[in-house]
Amino acid sequence: MSLTRQSPPATLAVTPDALAEHLRLPHAAPETEQTVELVTLVKAATAAIERRLDTALVAQGWLWFTADPARPLPLAPVLSVESAEIVDRHGTRTPWTGWTLARDGPGPRLAARSFPSIPTDGHVEIAFTAGYGTAPEAVPDDLRHAVTLMAAHFYEHRTATDDPRTPLPLGVAALLAPYSPIRLS
Question: Model's pTM, two decimal places?
Answer without folding.
Answer: 0.87
